[in-house]
């Protein structure tokens, strides 16, 4: 898999690349005055690496929301959720490996900082099994990691500094690679800036900022004057992911655009002085006596994030599914569609090593195969897929319908992460076979650790799903509670229906 992306060209027109794999381990700091092209640089980096790695963008000005139009980024409006919901969303982002843009433009400054801090902290605190690689881009980082307290409340400052410090100092072991962009290095907390090993320095004029940038780039004071003369969109780059020596980079073009106000010259309105004066003063006294209108935030529909995440992970929009007739087809068409989906899942589960892959990777592969074979799969979300995959791994489809339905009813109360080994035990019991050995349970559970299987059996027994009996000779027998009663009940129902 390629890891090099092109970010621009040097002074000779030669391509300058960035190693995303190395960037994940070494982080990036971007600095430049307002108008130097920082947002353009970040947008170029995000666009070029969108298909290589998960991306999380903290966007205080709403400049990066257009990424959702061209790529598989989910837009999260920070003003539409509570603190607990923001933290829960961050957990799902890590679990499902979805690229997102956290837009904070509708919030006040202190609310922006608290919302971003809670989101970053939840990304950092995700369970170990969700430590997938991700680029975390924080624009205007001096807001979220200020060098001085300023007007921020002390609790807010501690919260945001802790989140940013964890991201840059300890995030690497959790798969999080921080990319921070700031207008002034002097305004950014030193312990946040010091953890970056890659630098892209744009135009700056203040001596203190030029000197700090030159120190980071390994340049002397005379060479630091180059930083003042940089044109817009030109940066000096250094670091293991870019170059071992300082290199001038002209950032390449981008596909998406920001929401900046119009720049450059515009023709003034054509009118004489009297008309313009009338525009300013007409009914001014009447307007001044009216109460000032209260700003009303635009109402944005809250999306079903779980459903949105599932569709993004699959890489398929519902519009990409094969066209169906406007009128509903017979029930047999629905059954045939479900059978085709089940066949794709069975083929995937039968492949060697499939159970050792993450659910996100399996779900992506499932969606791609459905698209290749023309099988509609938009109705199958991540939770539904996990259950289908567990049933296929355990061989539940080999049982008669009444027995299969009985086991499915018992499995409704079994946690999803241990569903496959439980179903494997239940299928063996229903077929009258001996209990599966540790190797078989390890295969469907996706582990190579015998101790995890012992803990698994102990957990299922404590939850009241099975009974394990260890004999003196070393043999083990496992009984599935209520299985016989459930099978008998379903057999009676089937006979009454005439099945």
TrEMBL record:
Pfam families, per the entry: AAA_16
The organism's place on the tree of life at top rank: Bacteria
Coiled coil: none
Residue ranges occupied by any AAA+ ATPase domain in the UniProt entry: 24-458
Organism of derivation: Croceibacterium salegens
Signal sequence, start to end: none
InterPro entries: AAA+_ATPase (IPR003593), AAA_16 (IPR041664), ATPase_Atu1862_pred (IPR014588), HerA-like (IPR008571), P-loop_NTPase (IPR027417)
CDD domains found in the cross-reference section: TrwB_TraG_TraD_VirD4
Protein name: DUF87 domain-containing protein
Gene3D superfamilies noted in UniProt: P-loop containing nucleotide triphosphate hydrolases
